[in-house]
Design the sequence.
């Protein structure tokens, strides 16, 4: 009986050994795909990402001067992202409409009038009259905290700038947008200062 038991143990051990050998062989033959290394983004990668974000967010809706075309306002390419043109005079503002709670805008959506007064779309080009001299942290402060020129002690950005929405963008997305704006054609244009609600004459003050 001991001989039979030993025989069964021997067979069992042999089967286990064969199984282990087959398992080791199969592991050696199996090809594992290498995990690709994370690509470090280049400046051009950031610019391309920024262009995509700026276009889908709709920054040109307010920050680019336009001319009327067959399908309505069309962006003037050579003035793209340059903000409200400094030489332009606002049309007459209906203070009666404002008193009734309306918000007004000019023909190409670069100027807005409301209970806060009149606000103008900023120059976002790479010129020094735009954001040419800005640092990345200034851009982040402007969009995260709604501060004029990205200065901590600057005035608050006026409506309808939706900085509260942009504040939710990631650091990488804000960096991409900043890199793109810094890559744009510089357009010299000093956007007028806002008009306080006590002086809604329709004529922008000197910047």
Sequence:
């Amino acid at each position: 009986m001991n001989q039979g038991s030993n025989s069964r143990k021997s067979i069992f051990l042999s089967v286990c050994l064969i199984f282990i050998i087959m398992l080791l062989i199969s592991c050696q033959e199996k090809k594992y795909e290498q995990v690709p290394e994370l690509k470090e983004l280049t400046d051009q990668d950031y610019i391309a990402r920024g262009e995509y974000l700026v276009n889908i967010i709709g920054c040109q809706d307010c920050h680019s001067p336009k001319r009327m075309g067959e399908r309505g306002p069309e962006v003037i390419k050579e003035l793209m992202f340059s903000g409200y043109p400094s030489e332009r005079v606002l049309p007459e503002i209906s203070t009666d409409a404002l008193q009734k709670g309306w918000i007004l805008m000019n023909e190409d959506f670069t100027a807005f009038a409301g209970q806060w007064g009149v606000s103008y779309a900023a120059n976002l080009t790479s010129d020094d009259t735009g954001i040419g001299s800005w640092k990345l942290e200034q851009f982040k402060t402007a969009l995260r905290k709604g501060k004029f020129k990205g200065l901590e002690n600057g005035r608050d950005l006026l409506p309808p700038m939706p900085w509260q929405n942009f504040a939710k963008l990631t650091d990488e997305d804000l960096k991409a947008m900043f890199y793109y704006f810094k890559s744009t054609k510089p357009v010299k244009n000093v956007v007028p200062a806002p008009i306080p609600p006590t002086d809604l004459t329709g004529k922008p003050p000197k910047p």
